[in-house]
Amino acid sequence: MHARKRKEVLEFAAAAAARDIAELERKLAEHERSRGPDDPSTIACRDTLGNFYLMISHGDSITLLESNLAAAERALGLDHPDTITYRSRLGQAYLKTGRAADNLVVAERIVADSERVLGPDHPDTLSRRAGLAMAYRRTGRNQESIAMLERAAADDERVLGPASESTLVTRAALGMAYRENGRVADSIDLLEHVLADCERELRHGDKLTNAVGTDLIRSYFAAGRRREAKALSRRLKAAYRDYVATRWAEDRSAQDQPQ
Hints:
Layout: H1 2-34, H2 40-55, H3 61-76, H4 81-96, H5 100-117, H6 123-138, H7 142-159, H8 165-180, H9 184-201, H10 207-222, H11 226-256
Helix pairs in contact: 1-2, 2-3, 3-4, 4-5, 5-6, 6-7, 7-8, 8-9, 8-10, 9-10, 10-11
């Protein structure tokens, strides 16, 4: 019964996606005919369709996103913020289709573009710098990845503040990178601080706190500190149970409020 229900849900989702794609394709054709292929609204529509194709692994997704970036570069210019965004989305598409080397080329380009156009401390630049670190990691350039993560973490903390979720995510990624490259003691030291910051700034048991704690457990095990790893595992599980119970009570309370 469960398998049949799952099949029905998947078939419904596939049918809904097909209808959405057909509508987007019709809308794009209408925009290209009435406004031209390089009109900003046409470019935005083509970007939406390309990313929808990507979601369902449509074979034309990369081709469509590449042609859309070319249209944005012609119509808006190489350094327009929207052009940089379209370039970033193409890079993510390369990554999702297994083209890590192409993703790295784009990631390096958009960091340079963002630094020049938006400024080195713009939130988008900070986020893209962390993305470049991950692109280095995926292509085996681990030392460059660590160096970029160290810079990104320092910049996030300086610009966004130590309590920012973006800062916490970047510092956690750096802690993981330290462990993966044999710097287990550095990993433990950093992740202990990040976990403490998460527990102070966020709700105990939330998704990010659990992810950081889980990474710290892995680092404890890598260092042979099994007792601390198991103790932290028990603490995280208890915190997550409390978090779920609290969220459930809050949701029920909100539902019971008069409209």
